[in-house]
Write a structure and sequence with these properties.
This protein is of the alpha/beta class. A 6-stranded parallel beta sheet has the order 5-4-3-10-7-9. The chain has a 5-stranded parallel beta sheet with strand order 15-12-11-16-17, with helices on both faces. β13 and β14 form a beta hairpin. The chain starts with 7 loop residues before the first helix and ends in a 14-residue tail after the last strand.
Length: about 575
Amino acid sequence: MAARVPSDDELDSGDEVENRTLVSKNDTKSPRLSSALEIGQFPDRIGGRRLFPRRCFCFFVFLIAVFLSVLLALLLFRGGYTAHSDSQIDRMRESELGALYLLKSQQAALLKIWNSTRAVAADVASPVPSAVNSTSATTNLPKLESFVEFQSALLEQIKINKEIQNALLSSHEIGNRTSGTSDDNLDLGVSGAGVDVCKKVDPLASRRTIEWKPKKDRYLFAICLSGQMSNHLICLEKHMFFAALLDRVLILPSPKFDYQYDKVLDIDHINECFGRKVSITFDEFSAAKKNKMKIDRFICYIASPPCYLDEEHINRLKNLGLSLGKIEPAWPEDAKLTKQKKRVVGDIMPKFSSDGEVIAIGDMFYADVEDEWVAQPGGPLAHKCKTVIQPSRLIHITAQRFVQTFLGSNYIALHFRRHGFLKFCNLKDKSCFFPIPQAAECVIRVVEKANAPGIYLSTDAASSETNLLQSLVFLNGKPVPLVKRPEHNSTEKWDALLYRNNLGGDSQVEAMLDKTICALSSVFIGSSDSTFTEDIIRLRRGWSSASQCDEYLCEGEMPNYIAENE
């Protein structure tokens, strides 16, 4: 069998804003464009309200002047010489670090001003008392607009400051954090009214799709074997892509051979999305064929073992009443590979086209075919839904009831994978298993940006780990609660639907419930290299709930301590 990196589930035991200068309301002159490194002509009053004393403002301008002087000197120093001795390089680095120090001082001053805007925000935006006439109420609107513009401009300067810091850091090793990473999720340390730092990600204007219009008498038999449920759902999505390419109806696996998908997925929803019968259950296939069920051809995508089938699973297929055709790989030469080749549609059609009524292509979890196309929000197939593969209606409603009961509209969800993850992560070039104190610091940074009062914790960690994590997650001197699903209690009604339908306590149902609660959150923090996390990200993209603050836990960092391998 070709060597491969195991999934996390298998190692489980069971599993612009534009930069502009604000102008006084009565000033009709055109604003002067400011330098990218300047704060600009910020007024010390917004709508007649003093945001900070003039003395502080002068000190703030002085900080900028000092910073620009040092930066100009640094640039002249770097540009005036083409050959440097070691000592000159050292002095250059000292100058860069000096510039970094000034930038951090500027950032501190900017954040101080930002915090003062938060204190005024509620007052500016507050409803006018009933005793005030409508004319007075109208005059409050420009104040609010100006205030929001001021906050936006200030936030832009903080972003620029952070970007300059990252650029200077790119030639230095600072701790264990990967430098030079700059995106929309900069660790700005700002939050609050007026600017939505963690706004929703805009959905794609268009998707690259194909139509799924299967022939009624041609079928693709789905086989998914590797790992736990999350892996199987990825496999199932790839089977749908192949079924559409090959114009075949997809036969969903029997619960005697695979998971009972109708417990966790909305099976009817799949056909409703396409407006036609594109998939059938194994029982429907069995009823139609009676005692003549046969897989005419096995054209295996995975070469070793062919179709990822061992003798046990071959026998289990036969026990379902299926007669099996010859099992052969599409690319026998792949058996010698240590990593699956990337393939495109042009590679697929000649190999998998067949006149056979029922064909199987085997487990597709490790198949690397049109990955970007398949993984795009909404998937690769043309349909009228947000997502095709999604939780059942009962699970979705139960998740909503849990959120209403325990969390409210604004919460962070954290998938904190631990069980079986230490060894799995440490086998990688970059370990994904973080010490609890480091993980807590990373979580706090997201909480500061999201300004959320609580965190939903989806984890398989032991209580010793989660208790320590909770003791370390503080913001402004107050603990940020980590909320986990409680054990079933008949006096609580949020999960009554599941128990009335005999789904309560089912491990796969509870896992899908966890995914759904995470997918509904304002901000999501996932575990890198976890297919459970990837399935949540897929749902968030499809449901348009993904946030610009979504990230993997401690993204861009390495664990500050890594144990040796055995």
